[in-house]
Design brief:
single chain, alpha+beta, FAD/NAD(P)-binding domain, 9-stranded mixed sheet, 3-stranded antiparallel sheet, 8 helices, 26% helix, globular, flavin adenine dinucleotide binding, FAD, MTOX
Length: 360
């Protein structure tokens, strides 16, 4: 997304990809990511979400491809629990559109969900699912049409600021450029300043899919994206896009990973037990056996807030990483901010709360 946005401003943009765009081991693997305008802690991110929603539409128009499935979204939990009150507080702080659906309304409109008597739903009319592979490939293709150059199978081994610019090294080649945006995700640690490395860590995120007894009940037209947080259990997911399986994964279970290149690909026994039990309790119309599972890497910060801004002490190296499992919904907006910082540093600005210098 940073590549695409930079290419709309500057005719000389170079993108490095360690493998190929949208390769199956990236943090965007797994078909879809949720887009929501409403979630706990929305308020500081709300302007970026608004910009991202606009840019997803722009990318769809420019590429001619459908990227954001606008099916709406549900946040589900106990009316007086820890989740729903905190969610509504964030929503009211930013003024996002929403409706609160009581238990009876939820049962009538969305009978797929098995709810406790005191559980309610918060409806987000602007939510939906992002087709991650399509989004990435569309952005790269649009950037190339604007004149950007993409170097595939070119993992970057070092980024060093010099008197003349920034030297980018990859295997047996190097380039000197005016400015660099570091967007390496779980692999970005080695490219960060030493003082930031102790404040980030790679993680392993598990995604799972189940088969529906009646797939029509889980079609995008009748089954919005969801996140359900109850007492001791939680799950999020998206409607069926293949007419057979439904994405339903445990929420908040990202575990530290030693090496993003060597993640355990299959669920552990404990993970399998928990995800099956949770799916069975939430969705009586899903067959409670995992039919597909995989894991993907991401980079987390110790405070859960992205590194978006200039590297400490630099005006040439922009960091856009450490999105801590919540980055893709705002990737287009984050990419636009990063591109503006790199290409117009005197006038552009990133949100102060994402400034990497907070760890310096």
């Amino acid at each position: 997304m940073a590549l695409w946005q930079a290419s709309t401003i500057c005719s000389s943009v170079l993108g490095f990809e360690a493998r190929t765009p949208a390769h199956p081991r990236t943090a965007v693997g797994g078909d879809t990511r949720l887009f929501r305008m409403t979630y706990r802690g929305t308020d500081p991110y709300y302007p970026i979400l608004q910009q991202s929603l606009q840019l997803w539409g722009q990318l769809e128009e420019e590429s001619g491809r459908a990227i954001l499935g606008r099916c709406g979204g549900l946040s589900i939990g106990h009316r007086d629990g820890r989740y729903i009150p905190a969610l509504l507080e964030s929503i009211r702080a930013c003024g996002a559109d929403h409706d609160v659906l009581d238990h009876d309304q939820m049962r009538q409109r969305y009978p797929q969900h098995n709810l406790d008597p005191d559980e309610v739903g918060v409806w987000d009319p602007h939510a939906g699912y992002l087709k991650t592979d399509t989004a990435v490939l569309s952005a790269v293709e649009c950037a190339e049409k604007h004149g950007a150059t993409v170097l595939t199978d070119s993992p970057v081994t070092a980024v060093t600021e010099t008197d003349d610019g920034v030297r980018v090294e990859s295997a047996d080649r190097s380039w000197t450029v005016d400015r660099v945006i570091v967007t390496g995700g779980a692999w970005a640690t080695r490219l960060l300043p030493e003082r930031l490395r102790e404040n980030v860590y790679p993680t392993r995120i598990l995604l799972t899919w189940f088969e529906a007894r009646d797939p029509e009940l889980f079609a995008p037209e009748v089954f919005p994206i969801f996140i359900h947080i109850a007492q001791g259990t939680s799950m999020y997911g998206a409607p069926s896009l293949d007419g057979t399986t439904v994405k339903a994964s445990l929420d908040g279970r990202a575990g530290r990973a030693h090496d993003p290149d060597d993640l355990l690909r299959v669920p552990t026994e404990a993970e399998m037990t928990e995800v099956r039990q949770t799916a069975a309790s939430y969705f009586p119309d899903l067959i409670p056996y995992v039919v597909r599972a995989d894991t993907y890497p991401d980079l987390y910060t110790t405070d859960g807030i992205p590194l978006l801004g200039f590297a400490p002490g630099s005006r040439r190296i922009v960091l856009a990483t450490g999105f801590s499992g919540a980055g893709f919904k705002m990737a287009s907006g984050f990419g636009a901010i990063a591109a503006s910082l790199a290409l117009d540093p005197d006038r552009a600005a990133a949100p102060s709360f994402t400034d990497p210098a907070r760890f310096a």
